Amino acid sequence: MDRLDEQILGILQENARCSFSEIGRRVGLSTNATAARVRRLEADGVILGYTVVTGHDAPQLRGGLEVFIDVRLDAGTDYETFVDAIAPIEQIVDAVHMTGPYDYLLRARLRDTAALDALLRRLKKSCGVVQTQTRVALRQPTPHPRPH
């Protein structure tokens, strides 16, 4: 992978729908040469796919929060009941059953601290949660191309 491939990947990471002609114009290649490089990057497994990122999936683009919430369940709440209770909460992205002092680690995306407060109250009121500990992500990791 050379400098041009890295530039092409950067453009596609910004906008995966960018045309070959636009990419080529930006990196100084013809449309056909650009298309050939993108197809090679796909064939080599450097580009694994293309996706749509919605506002819900990327609150950091709207100034939202990504949080990690350690959850301890009430002694009377079983794991299946908890998982069923949080299933309809769209802000919760992941729920991982953990070892240690907490039962679950939740990852949630929220628009602001008021929404975080409402989520924590809901977990404690309706989902069998007795204790939480919340950490706020300060920034998202920057993706780096995989070396060959």
Walkthrough of the structure:
The chain is elongated. It has helices at 3-14, 20-27, 31-43, 79-86, 113-126; strands at 65-73, 92-97, 104-110, 129-136. Strands 2-3-1-4 form a 4-stranded antiparallel sheet, covered by helices on one side. Helix content is 37%, strand content 20%. Helix 2 (20-27) packs across helix 3. The protein has 148 residues and is an alpha+beta fold. Strand 2 and strand 3 form a beta hairpin. The protein folds into 2 domains: 3-44, Arc Repressor Mutant, subunit A, CATH 1.10.10; 65-136, Lrp/AsnC effector binding domain/regulation of amino acid metabolism (RAM) domain (Alpha-Beta Plaits). The longest helix is centred in the last third of the chain and has 14 residues, at 113-126.
Detail the topology: elements first, then pairings.
Blueprint (H helix, E strand, L loop, with lengths): L2 H12 L5 H8 L3 H13 L21 E9 L5 H8 L5 E6 L6 E7 L2 H14 L2 E8 L12
Antiparallel strand pairs: 1-3, 1-4, 2-3
**Alpha carbon gyration radius:** 21 Å
Subunit arrangement of the protein: single chain
The CATH homologous superfamily of the largest domain is named: Lrp/AsnC effector binding domain/regulation of amino acid metabolism (RAM) domain
Instruction: Summarize the main sheet.
Output: 4 strands, antiparallel
Shape: elongated
Helix/strand/pairing category: alpha+beta
Number of DSSP strand runs: 4
CATH architecture of the largest domain: 2-Layer Sandwich
Low-confidence stretches: none
Summarize model confidence as the mean pLDDT.
87
Give me the side-by-side strand order of the main sheet.
Answer: 2-3-1-4
Count of separate DSSP helical elements = 5
